[in-house]
Amino acid sequence: MKRIPLCAVGLLATSAVTTMAQDDTQRPNILFILADDLGYADLSCYGNEFIHTPVIDQLAATGARFTHCYAGSAVSSPSRCTLMTGKHTGHSTIRDNFVKAGGIEGKKGQQTIRRMHLLETDTTIAHVLREAGYRTCLVNKWHLDGFNPEATPLNRGFDEFYGWLISTAHSNDPYYYPYYRFHGRELINITANERGAHAVHNTDLSTDDAIQFIRRNQDNPFFLYLAYDAPHEPYNIDDTHWYAHTPWEANTQRYASLITHMDQAIGRVLAELDKLGLRDNTLIIFASDNGAARQAPRETLRCVGDLRGMKAQLYEGGLRVPFIVNMASLIAPQTIDNRIWFPDVMPTLAYIADAEQHLPAELDGMNIAPLFYNSNEEMDTDSRLFYWEFPGKQRAAIRGEWKAVSVKRDTPLELYHITADPNETTNLATLYPALIAEMDSLMRIAHRQSPNFPE
Question: Among residues 277, 159, 270, which one has the least CA distance to residue 219?
Answer without folding.
Answer: 277
